[in-house]
Amino acid sequence: MKRILNVHEAPIMMFTILVIVLFSLISPDFFAIANFRLILDQNITMFIVAIGMTMVILLGGMDLSVGSVLAVTATSVGLFLSKGISPGAAALLGIVIGVLCGMVNGYFIAVRRIPDIIVTLATMYIFRGVAVGISGGTWMNNFPEGFRFFGQGTVASISFPLLVAILLIAVFIYLLKFTRAGRRIYSVGGNSSAAKLAGISVPKTKFMVYVLTGLLVGIASVIFAAKVGSVQASTAGNSLSFEVMAAVLIGGGSIFGGVGTIAGTMLGVLFMGIVKNGLIISKVSPFWVDATTGFLIILAIVINTLQRARQNKGKEGDLV
Amino acid sequence: MTTWTSRLPFKSGTLLVQLVLLLFILILFSFLSPYFLSVTNFMNVLNQMVEVGLIAIPMTMIIISGAMDLSVGSILAFSAVSMGVAFERGYNIWVCVIFGLLAGLMCGAINGYLIARHRMQAIVVTIGMLVMLRGLVYVVNEGRPISGFPDSFYFLGQEYIAGIPFNAIILVIMFLIANFFMKKTRFGTYIYGIGNNEEVVRFSGISVIRVRFILFMLSGLFSALAGVFLVSRLASAEATSGTNIELDVITATLIGGTHIFGGRGSLTGTFVGLLIIVFLRNGLNLLGVSVLYQAVILGALLLLAVANKKISGE
């Protein structure tokens, strides 16, 4: 029993089970296979973006611009498709644009050393404006049949986006756990001066993380565009950054950097998805969903700080 | 803007650069738009800058102390809407104003309690408040605008005294009082001290918790005040009011020379930064540039303001 409790993801697992029980009691429609499939299906974008956000938060940073990057990428994919570029090439170009956005963030944060919160706050508005600019303010729809495969297609009776998400999760879990690049992220986030003395290039690591985040958001936005079927540049992914951030923090990531796992984050995303779905199924006003997200962010930081305080209790001095 | 500024022979170079930038914007828009250079337009700008300006005062103090408050826009909307809802219940309008201010103060106190007392990361807590309060605003308000306030209330935001907007006069007075507090009182010195070295301030026997707590309470109060003025100026309390106002406020503060890592900055600089922002927005509005493109320009300006400071190695 004690071993189970010592697993890093134990608190979030307990929370998730608690919430599932709670909503099952409130609404009879909640506890059904079809509903769980729906929850998974609706949160694919969040799952993929959350991988990137986990790495950013592991560095002790924060990326507020992911929602706007999603908007830029999704609208430009729409634009490419309307220009008659083939679906595969359009998707690829979209991912490249995501990477470019990540490079812009990475350049200012890693090379110019501006605090990430300021950079991503600024790029959040800049990318959003660019997205609206290139879309001309209209809805992007009329995606061709071939493109819809990326969001709605199935491979061996499993939905294609889910497969992509599972693949990406597996790759990045491996990357973070077993490769040097991944361990570098942990060490830079845990103690960047020590990492620097150990010969790790902090700017390079940061730049890589933001580029990877851009890549992941690019992939997520292709799936998003293909799944939703219509994209409006001014609203697409509006509250995505906040929700994903909440998911990472709930999943055990520490805002101070260096602590957190992708598995925990995925549970966090699932938790957020379940709460949202449950609230809607229990026929609570949809306005409450946003309020709940904010409340969860605060709850997450409270838990985060408590954990940190407990860990530092035995140490000398006032570290917290 | 990046390289030639450091070569200027002035000691207090930053303020001069800001004034030059302001002058540049004024001259540029005077050429671009025939409507820009007129007393009516300038008074109009003064009238419109009050909300951003009011919030910029505590924001400057908070950034100097080494933290940041992103929840100001949502607090503004929350107090505006609570005021409106209280008014709809039939209370006297001034009672409602006090109610709105208290709502803002309460939000600020929650921020302050979590950040100061429990040392949680200011950015995360205030982002949480930003999302939560904006959601609550829609819950309270159900997304519809509230209007029909009595005429005596509109005095706050629409009346002119000797040709100058009443709310702009209030703003200038607030800036003067705040500047006095920052420059001449112990409280101001503590704020600079916390921004430079929190440990030393604490070991000097000063309650860092209390100073931080007061700062976030002030931020809540001033955001609420901005909400009251906004409702009075626009004659309606809307759930969307104050969205993205934090971009304007933070950009004004950072252009005004306040250092992002805290410890340095002044309210005089923020005031000039504020003028730069509002005249820029007004000029772009007159030229018919969409609000979203304005956000792009402001975002770029924000990056430039911070990047510039880092390079000159201040």
Automatic annotation (TrEMBL), chain A:
InterPro entries tied to this protein: ABC_transp_permease
Domain of life where this protein originates: Bacteria
GO terms under cellular component: plasma membrane
Location of the protein in the cell: Cell membrane
Entry membrane topology: Multi-pass membrane protein
PANTHER family the UniProt entry points to: ABC TRANSPORTER PERMEASE PROTEIN YPHD-RELATED-RELATED, AUTOINDUCER 2 IMPORT SYSTEM PERMEASE PROTEIN LSRC
Described function: Part of the ABC transporter complex LsrABCD involved in autoinducer 2 (AI-2) import. Probably responsible for the translocation of the substrate across the membrane.
Binding partners and assembly: The complex is composed of two ATP-binding proteins (LsrA), two transmembrane proteins (LsrC and LsrD) and a solute-binding protein (LsrB).
Name under which the protein is recorded: Autoinducer 2 import system permease protein LsrC
Organism expressing this protein natively: Paenibacillus typhae
Top-level taxonomy: Bacteria, Bacillati, Bacillota, Bacilli, Bacillales
UniProtKB/TrEMBL annotation, chain B:
InterPro entries xref list: ABC_transp_permease
Record carries keyword Transmembrane: yes
TM region positions: 15-37, 49-79, 91-115, 122-140, 160-182, 213-235, 255-279, 286-307
CDD domains reported in the protein's UniProt record: TM_PBP1_transp_AraH_like
Membrane topology: Multi-pass membrane protein
UniProt GO molecular function: transmembrane transporter activity
Superkingdom of origin organism: Bacteria
PANTHER family linked: ABC TRANSPORTER PERMEASE PROTEIN YPHD-RELATED-RELATED, AUTOINDUCER 2 IMPORT SYSTEM PERMEASE PROTEIN LSRD
Protein name per the record: Autoinducer 2 import system permease protein LsrD
Organism: Paenibacillus typhae
